[in-house]
């Protein structure tokens, strides 16, 4: 095998090229990315990059020299038009590439609003470095920011904007923020936190349109209500980029379908990251994740298996979110629990909410509690008593079963 | 440029020049040193960039923050000289530093 092509320029793609070289592959690697930048970290975009605490060059997962030194050919700013599996080729606007093995790491893109006024200037989505560069420019002069969608991206932006002195409204269609991804307890905690920091959260409030002034957004319309806003950021979820794969006849269903080796329905085509729908043996179900650790580990798995390895991907998903001075680390899915145990003190902004199913730990939401997060990683699926878990006198280390 | 020596668990050595200010994690991943996963990209969120600092160098490092300490504390391979490499910026004072990589990252 001599040629590997990677479609995508995000973190999965960046990890895959590194893993391929690390595993000794000496053939040609072509990375085709739609964005103008080398693979970079996305999580800081809505956090330290937006606030200005992290400069652009620190976002790159590896410096440009890395790609030169390892003979990885990058084709940035390049749209892939089609994949031809029977010919083993990929067609872009600037030419055709042939492959022995192909990795699809096309990621996902923000769900877009299509309502009156949604094309006005000043309405932004947040997915790429360019998106955030534009938002930051606007934030310099903006007075009133309206965030559509009370998910993690929206709330992270709210914390940066409120900290920098903007007036911030958050619109959430459901009865509580973070409804899709966490429990009422955590929703309530973050609702109170943001409210205390001056953010106005409007639940059960759907955005129905925008009003503008000279082509630029001036108001957000929510049914009868109108909110003033000179900057709008929409964070209402993402859609996996499956079009190329589907058009090439690769099986897709809420993501590109892969097995636990990251192989698609075509044996020479693999997929990794946000765009995949994959089985998880530990959780005993299929998942589509919006997660960097997932992208990285799937990329390692795909790289190994493209080279003839036999690496299986199975990990308990984990996530993190930074808002204000609070670091939230999450493991597993809290919805899997049928009881919960609180350790620590939410008032002190330091606590962990453990979730148990039939007495076994299946998830944790840890706020400023890295130790509790780390212990949950090692106690996943392990039976513990609520009394031990919630008792601050008990060192969590002692609960880890001895090998 | 100051250099760092990474020693893999199997004894393989990598001596690499690094930019001042880059973390040991960034220097390792930019040079394909195996054994440092760095899943969170340097946020002190995942503890998958665990290293064991050579005893001669431990005292030259700024002490671990409370967060780093907590992340390390539950690592089953934790030693007194354990650190997270994303939290150690390279500097001229660290020229020649030697770090060992654990067998596994968790």
Largest sheet of chain B: 5 strands, mixed
Tell me the number of helical segments of chain A per DSSP (H or I, 4 or more residues long). 10
Q: Quick check: average pLDDT of chain B?
A: 94
The residue fraction in helices of chain A comes out at 10-25%
CATH topology of chain B: Ubiquitin-like (UB roll)
The CATH homologous superfamily of the largest domain in chain A is named FAD/NAD(P)-binding domain
Uncertain runs of chain B are none
Summarize the structure.
The complex is a heterodimer of chains A (403) and B (106). With 403 residues, chain A is an alpha/beta fold.
Written overview of the protein:
- The complex is a heterodimer of chains A (about 400) and B (about 110).
- Chain A is α/β, with parallel strands linked by helices and about 400 residues long.
- Chain A is built from ten helices and 26 strands.
- In chain A, the strands form seven sheets. A five-stranded parallel beta sheet of chain A has the order 3-2-1-7-19. Chain A has a five-stranded parallel beta sheet with strand order 9-16-10-11-12. In chain A, strands 22-23-26-25-24 form a five-stranded antiparallel beta sheet.
- In chain A, helix 1 (about 10-20) packs parallel to helix 8 (about 290-305).
- Chain A is globular, with a radius of gyration of 22 Å.
- By secondary structure, chain B is an alpha+beta fold.
- Chain B has one domain (about 5-100): Ubiquitin-like (UB roll), CATH 3.10.20.30.
- Helix content of chain B is about 20%, strand content about 20%.
- Chain B contains three helices and five strands.
- A five-stranded mixed beta sheet of chain B has the order 2-1-5-3-4.
- Chain B is globular, with a radius of gyration of 12 Å.
- At the A-B interface, helix 1, helix 8, strand 22 and helix 9 of A face helix 3 of B.
């Amino acid at each position: 095998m001599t040629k590997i092509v990677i479609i995508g320029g995000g973190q999965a793609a960046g990890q895959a090229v590194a893993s391929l070289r690390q595993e000794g592959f000496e053939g040609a690697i072509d990375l085709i990315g739609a964005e103008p930048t080398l693979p970079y970290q996305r999580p800081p975009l809505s956090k330290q990059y937006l606030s200005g605490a992290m400069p652009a060059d620190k976002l790159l997962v590896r410096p440009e020299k890395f790609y030169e030194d390892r003979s990885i050919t990058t084709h940035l700013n390049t749209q892939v038009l089609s994949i031809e599996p029977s010919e083993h080729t990929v067609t872009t606007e600037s030419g055709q590439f042939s492959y022995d093995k192909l990795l699809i790491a096309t990621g996902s893109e923000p769900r877009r609003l299509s309502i009156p006024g949604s094309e006005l200037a000043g309405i932004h989505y947040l997915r790429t470095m360019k998106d955030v560069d534009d938002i930051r420019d606007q934030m310099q002069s903006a007075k009133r920011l309206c965030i559509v969608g009370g998910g993690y991206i929206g709330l992270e932006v709210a914390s940066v904007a409120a900290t920098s002195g903007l007036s911030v409204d958050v619109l959430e269609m459901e009865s509580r923020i973070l409804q899709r991804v966490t429990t009422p307890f955590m929703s309530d905690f973050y609702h109170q936190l943001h409210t205390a920091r001056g953010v106005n959260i409007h639940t059960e409030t759907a955005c129905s349109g925008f009003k503008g002034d000279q082509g630029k957004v001036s108001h957000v319309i929510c049914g009868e209500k109108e909110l003033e806003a000179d900057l709008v950021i929409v964070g209402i979820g993402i859609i996996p980029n499956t079009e190329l794969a589907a058009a090439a006849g690769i099986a897709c269903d809420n993501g590109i379908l892969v097995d636990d080796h990251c192989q698609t329905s075509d044996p020479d085509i693999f997929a990794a990251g946000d765009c995949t729908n994959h089985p998880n043996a530990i959780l005993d179900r299929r998942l589509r994740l919006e997660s960097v650790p997932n992208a990285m580990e799937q990329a390692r798995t795909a790289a190994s298996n493209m080279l003839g390895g036999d690496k299986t991907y199975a990990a308990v998903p984990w996530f993190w979110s930074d808002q204000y001075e609070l670091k939230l680390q999450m493991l597993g899915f809290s919805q899997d629990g049928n009881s919960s145990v609180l350790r620590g003190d939410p008032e002190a902004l330091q606590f962990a909410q453990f979730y148990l199913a039939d007495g076994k730990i299946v998830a944790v939401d840890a706020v400023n509690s890295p130790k509790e997060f780390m212990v949950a990683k090692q106690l996943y699926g392990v039976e513990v008593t609520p009394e031990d878990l919630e008792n601050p006198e008990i060192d969590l280390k002692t609960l880890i079963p001895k090998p | 440029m100051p250099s760092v020596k990474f020693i893999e668990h199997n004894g393989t050595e990598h001596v690499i020049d690094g930019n001042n200010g880059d973390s040991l994690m960034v220097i390792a991943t930019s040079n394909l040193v195996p054994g440092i996963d760095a899943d969170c990209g340097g946020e002190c969120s995942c503890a998958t960039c665990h290293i064991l600092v050579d005893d001669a160098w431990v005292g030259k490092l700024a002490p671990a923050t409370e967060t780093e300490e907590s992340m390390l504390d539950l690592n089953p391979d934790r030693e007194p000289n354990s650190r997270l490499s994303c939290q150690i910026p390279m500097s001229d004072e660290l020229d020649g530093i030697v770090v060992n990589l654990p067998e596994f990252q968790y």
